[in-house]
Design goal:
Elements: H1 76-102, E1 156-161, E2 168-173, E3 185-188, E4 196-197, E5 212-215, E6 224-234, E7 238-242, E8 250-255, E9 270-275, E10 302-306, E11 314-321, E12 330-333, E13 335-339
Antiparallel strand pairs: 1-2, 3-6, 4-5, 5-12, 6-11, 7-10, 7-13, 8-9, 8-11
């Protein structure tokens, strides 16, 4: 009987034990496991002799072989990538240098100044118009401006009477001047009749040559006036008016109210005086005209009116012009003076 390898089969199992094995076989004929086999090292070992080496050891202490694995040379792929990167950088540097050399500087800014040319205006010839209405006289001071005579306080006028054979001298007190503040005068024109007027201050500025004026349309009464606000209720006795105009009719009204009445015919006004043909000759044949003042000298530039004593005091004083002068429809007041009742 032969075995699988062609050798004759042996019936004695002891014959199959190697010669090196000494001792009896176990009853089952199987060898016991060998317990003294060396353990495989768990850490790094020398690649030459297999001796374990410690971590970080560069040389084997047994055979002197190098323990650290040799460094690997860079592969072909890394070399190719490094070369390509170097070529790209070099190309960029060359391109930048070429652009810097060939770049053209921008042209310098040119400042353009525009000089305005003056074109002469066309000459227009204005032909005079003959159908225009004449303008009212300008309110300009005259060249003969002179201050008025100073106004003093209460004067004592001596009067002499001779009853029988005895002569007696007495004194009569005149009215005291009323101080008119600046800005107290204004135009009074309820019906909006004035077509031109001047500065009201010129009638109370104390200058003989300056004047206030007012002009109205022709064909009707003037119906305009000059209003004075005295600031407080005052006794009134006399009015003195300097004027360059002659022949007009004047009415004087007074009111104690703070605000003047709205119209000249308002019953809140009290008539204090009325005179026609101021500083001029009365018109001939004018029926119903207001008589002139007895002491009014013609063309002397002034008129003095005694105001009615009605037992009242007034704050507002109105110089109301009704009939215009014969020379036109403009009236001028050079200066207005008021005097109070004597004490």
């Amino acid at each position: 009987m032969t075995s699988l390898d062609g050798e004759p089969w042996r019936d004695d199992p002891a014959q199959d034990v190697p010669d090196a094995f000494e001792g009896p076989l176990p009853a089952d004929g199987l060898l016991a496991p060998i317990a003294d086999l060396p353990e495989e090292p768990s850490g790094p070992v020398c690649g030459v002799c297999g001796t374990p080496v410690a971590g970080g050891q560069d040389w084997c202490l047994e055979c002197g072989a190098a323990v650290t694995a040799p460094r690997r040379l860079p592969g072909a792929r890394a070399v190719v990538l490094a070369g390509a990167l170097a070529l790209v950088l070099a190309g960029g540097a060359v391109a930048a240098s070429y652009a810097a050399l060939t770049e053209k500087r921008p042209p310098r800014a040119t400042k353009v100044e525009t000089v305005a040319q003056t074109t002469p205006l066309p000459t227009t010839t204005v032909e005079p118009t003959t159908d225009l209405e004449p303008l009212p006289p300008l309110d300009e001071p005259s060249t003969d401006v002179q201050p008025l005579d100073p106004i003093t306080g209460i004067d004592e006028v001596p009067t002499t009477t001779t009853p029988g054979t005895t002569t007696t001298t007495t004194t009569e007190k005149k009215a005291a001047p009323i101080v008119i503040a600046a800005g107290a005068g204004s135009l009074y024109d309820p019906a909006a009749r004035a077509s031109a007027t001047g500065d009201p201050e010129r009638a109370i500025d104390g200058v003989r040559g300056s004047s206030w004026f007012v002009t109205t349309p022709e064909g009707a009464d003037m119906a305009v006036g000059y209003l004075l606000d005295l600031g407080e209720k005052t006794d009134l006795a006399r009015l003195e008016l300097l004027t360059k105009t002659s022949g007009f009719t004047l009415q004087v009204f007074g009111s104690p109210r703070v605000d003047p009445p709205l119209t000249a015919d308002d019953p809140l006004w009290t008539k204090l005086a009325e005179v026609g043909s101021v500083d001029g000759k009365p018109p001939e044949g004018a029926a119903g005209s207001v008589p002139a003042a007895k002491r009014d000298k013609r063309h002397d530039g002034r008129i003095e009116l005694k105001l009615a004593d009605v037992g009242k005091r007034f704050r507002q004083v109105l110089l109301w012009v009704t009939i215009p002068p014969r020379e036109g429809t403009t009236v001028r007041f050079n200066e207005i003076r008021l005097f109070s009742q004597p004490n």
